[in-house]
Design a protein that fits this description.
heterotrimer, A alpha/beta (284), B alpha+beta (89), C alpha/beta (499), A: 284 residues, alpha/beta, 8-stranded parallel β-barrel, two-stranded antiparallel ribbon, 16% strand, globular, B: 89 residues, alpha+beta, Ribosomal Protein S5, domain 2, 2 helices
Chain lengths: 284, 89, 499
């Protein structure tokens, strides 16, 4: 698995038609959902279906399963079933320090990582501690819908109500070198809104964005892709660096601006991403 | 294991299969309706039979309405129906 | 050469290296001096016509699944004890179920059509029709008529509006259906042409079929059910897999080398095809590319593109929705064309100028042959329509399909019925990858330089097989129930009775 997570697509866990095609929508990661998209009476049914799916069909994307929350009767059975499977991560909803520690324990002797869903007010305040509570924990997703319920505010398209949480979770995850995925944009017909919301996510440091409909994936990927300008600039930075090395210069500049280590690091990251995504074709 | 009561699993959605299990006198009987009966009927029955055998279920009548489910779905729905039919709650 | 009951003895088998074009185009000659064309009722008309056993009568399908005419006429003809009728209809739909009874009783012994679906198709597949069904293409139909190979005794033409002279338009009237492309050739060449209308007017200005070709006019309360004639607004698919395929298809178009100013385009009215139009439109606006024409069955989607100046012309052989009908009436660049002008191999036809055509498939095989005539279990459920015509004419023929749906795979080792030959098919687009016909090395080379998910068709089949498994073989009887005629009149395949 690469560590590219521009998009994470939720797929309902009890829908065979969607499950078997989960990896055709170009989403870097797919979240097979046992929680909100599955009716209470069908929890076991979905768990068995997802288990059989992974036992027989290979997926070309990162495979994440969202289990039911710690305080529900389904939590333990979900983990018990998932720990036998070849999956990459478990997404823990309504994560708290207590629940992530418990999950970490239950995943002993597996290679399964953890990703936390930060969707309570307490979760936002404790996000650093939660992320830091388990070595298995590789990153987080912000859950805007539930958080707004907890905050007792209305979830708007503009999303001012989430500003604090967004900045805070990004900062906490970057402080611990973990990834951060932004909450999904819930109006699946509003492409312009999705675009703006995703541009904002990228601008404040999120690594990717969740989506609740396959239609959204393309737009999200495009936005998180390095742009042609970014790629070309990065190439020039690295070329200039090579030149400087040959000429034995420690410090060098490009277009009149001094190029220092952060710029070089950033350029290397852009090129690495572009290479992995096959975006180098057609660049100058 | 013995099926204690009738049970069902699955849906009528495309790519899914609806499975009903009924206690039957010591033999497995399968009644299958499928949109791909001609091309996959045998395979679907085989998957159901194998799944029942894996769970040591012998006394059932299976009625299934298939909307083009793949093998993993057929297996999952049969297992779910078995779990529901062998417990008393 | 195998002899087939109800089919000509001197037929030619399809050969990709040969094209059989007919040399003898029959000239129109018509005995049409009378100004008194109006008949009080269908009964009166049929009393006057010399109906006889073994005659050929024709119908067109612009009223689609809302057509009342075919059933009504057959009911009257059956009453008169006429037998052995050959029905030459451009298409047969589920609404024509009453035909089943006439097929079983021998009133109807043969059907010749470009598309047959519903109960009639099932009856034919069961081997219940006396003679073999002949399944031609839309262009092939015009060729059959013009060459005199099919001699129409009476053409019954559903006329949404008709005037006293017999001038016909499809643009207005309560059963308006727009273009009458498939009826034009019938009217021109039939020994006798009858307009059947539910909107009889004094005088028509703009006409699709001129009165000089019409011998009789009859009124009927209603010629069709408007709900079956057109859909309201055709919608692009919401199915995410269909959208993915449509987006990939627009990428294929973009990178094909033919996407430039003046390009031409045809696509069907299915949800995925419409989605292709949607993405192509985005692409045209983004890249500032303007096309020359779009053709075939026209939808509101293409009408919008015409209005936006993205295409200069629409060549319309059939309207699929209300937007298309009103545009055909009001926009001079939205042009009705006959099936002959559309796709006849002996005509200078539009499809030869096509750059792209987007088509569906029930099955496609490793040689890129496509089946749209039978279902995946070998029962008749469609037909070429314009499929093999446009595949032949277009520079880039793209088949769009889900790799499988509801455990029905699209790629087979060999199609059960060959509708469109593989040498005229260029690209297959599925949700799990794109396969290019190896003979189109030019496209392969272009696509290799892009991010398109290129695979061979064998690789795609392996993916499909691993997910759905290999289907059991379908069993057929020896009896032939249908002949599939390629657009040049050669036989490209036979349809066998189902066991």
């Amino acid at each position: 698995m690469t560590n590219i997570r521009r998009s994470m697509l939720f797929i309902p866990g009890n829908n065979p038609g969607m499950l078997q095609s989960a990896d055709v929508f170009d989403s870097d990661s797919v979240i097979f959902d046992l929680e909100d998209s599955v009716a209470i009476d069908e929890k076991a049914s979905a768990r068995i279906l997802v288990k059989e799916l992974f036992s027989s069909i290979e997926m070309s994307c990162e495979r994440i399963v969202r289990i039911n929350p710690y305080d529900t009767p389904f939590y333990a059975s979900d983990i018990e079933a998932m720990r036998q499977l070849d999956i990459d991560m478990i997404l823990l909803p309504k994560a708290s320090v207590e629940s992530i520690k418990d999950l970490d324990q239950k995943l002993i002797k597996t290679n399964i990582n953890i990703m936390v869903l930060i969707e309570t007010a307490l979760g936002v305040e404790q996000v650093f501690e939660i992320l830091n509570a388990s070595k298995r924990c590789k990153g987080l997703m912000l859950g805007g819908e539930d958080l707004c319920v907890d905050l007792n505010c209305i979830r708007t398209k503009k999303g001012d109500e989430l500003l604090y949480a967004r900045y805070r979770v990004v900062n906490a995850s970057k402080a611990l070198s973990k990834f951060a995925i932004d909450t999904p944009y819930t109006d699946t017909f509003d492409e312009e809104g999705l675009k703006n919301d995703t541009l904002f996510s990228k601008s404040i440091g999120f690594d990717g964005k969740a989506s609740i409909n396959p239609r959204q994936v393309h737009c999200i990927n495009e936005i998180f892709n390095p742009t042609l300008d970014e790629i070309n600039h990065a190439k020039r930075v690295l070329e200039a660096k090579e030149m400087a090395l040959k000429e034995g210069k420690g410090v060098f500049s490009l277009d009149g601006k001094m190029v220092d280590l952060p710029i070089i690091k950033r350029a290397e990251k852009v090129i690495e991403l572009a290479l992995k995504l096959g975006l180098m074709k057609g660049t100058s | 294991m013995k099926l204690l009561k009738p049970s069902k699993a699955g849906t009528y959605e495309s790519n899914d299969i609806y499975i009903m299990l009924f206690p039957n006198d010591d033999e497995i009987r399968i009644e299958l309706e499928s949109i791909v009966l001609e091309t996959y009927g045998k395979q679907i029955k085989k998957v159901m039979m194998d799944t029942l055998n894996d769970h040591n279920i012998e006394n059932v009548l299976v009625k299934a309405i298939d909307k083009g489910a793949l093998d993993y779905t057929i297996r999952a729905r049969v297992i779910t129906a078995i779990n529901r039919g062998v417990s008393n709650d | 050469m195998m002899t087939i009951f109800g089919y000509k003895k001197n037929y030619q088998m399809y050969d990709p290296k040969k094209k059989y074009t007919d040399k003898h185009i029959r000239k129109h000659s018509k005995n049409n001096g009378s100004n008194d064309k109006y008949r009080k009722s269908i009964e009166d008309l049929l009393d006057e016509l010399e109906l006889k056993n073994g005659m050929t009568i024709s119908f067109h399908h612009h009223l689609r699944n809302g057509d009342y005419i075919l059933n009504r006429l057959m009911k009257e003809i059956a009453k008169r004890n006429i037998k052995d009728i050959r029905i030459f209809a451009s298409s047969i739909f589920p609404c024509h179920e009453p035909l089943v009874e006439y097929i079983e009783s021998g009133v109807v012994t043969q059907i010749i059509a470009a598309f047959i679906s519903g109960p009639v198709a099932k009856t034919i597949s069961q081997g219940k029709m006396e003679k073999v069904a002949i399944m031609h293409t839309h262009g092939g139909r015009a060729r059959l008529v013009e060459s005199g190979e099919v001699d129409i005794d009476v053409a019954f033409i559903a006329a949404p509006t008709c005037d006293k002279m017999g001038n016909i338009t499809g643009s207005c009237g309560k059963s308006a259906c727009g273009s009458l492309g498939y009826a034009v050739t019938d009217a021109h060449f039939a020994k006798c042409s009858v307009a059947i209308t539910d909107h009889y007017v004094e005088h028509l200005g703009s006409v699709f079929i001129e009165g000089k070709y019409i011998d009789y006019i009859v009124e009927m309360e209603s010629i069709g059910d408007s709900k079956g004639i057109v859909s309201g607004t055709t919608q692009i698919t919401k199915n995410p897999i269909g959208l993915k395929i449509a987006r990939l298809t627009s990428d294929v178009i973009y990178h094909s080398g033919y996407f430039k100013n003046g390009f031409s385009f045809q696509t069907g009215a299915g949800g995925t095809s419409l989605a292709v139009s949607y993405y192509v439109k985005q692409l045209m606006m983004k890249e500032k590319i303007k096309g020359s024409f779009a053709s075939g069955g026209i939808t509101g989607y293409l009408v919008d593109m015409l209005k936006d100046g993205l295409f200069e012309q629409l060549y319309d052989v059939q309207c699929f929705d209300l937007e298309a009908i009103s545009s055909l009436r009001d926009n001079k660049n939205h042009i009705p064309i006959s099936a002959s002008k559309y796709a006849n191999i002996n005509d200078k036809c539009i499809i030869n100028d096509l750059d792209f055509v987007i088509l569906g498939a029930t099955e496609i095989d490793l040689d890129f042959n496509v089946n749209v005539t039978t279902s995946s279990i070998g029962e008749i459920m469609g037909g070429s329509g314009g499929h093999s015509d446009t595949a032949y004419g277009a520079n880039v023929t793209i088949i769009v399909s889900q790799l499988f749906n509801a455990r029905i795979p699209v790629i087979k080792d060999k199609v059960l019925c060959k509708t469109t030959p593989g040498e005229t098919v260029d690209v297959l687009v599925t949700e799990r990858g794109i396969a290019v016909n190896p003979k189109r090395n030019d496209l392969i080379e272009r696509f290799k330089k892009t991010n398109l998910p290129l695979k061979t068709i064998n690789e795609l089949k392996q993916i499909s097989d691993s997910l759905v498994g290999i289907p059991d073989k379908i069993q057929f009887d020896e009896k032939i129930v249908g002949v599939v005629e390629y657009r040049d009149g050669s036989v490209i395949d036979f349809i066998h009775k189902k066991l």
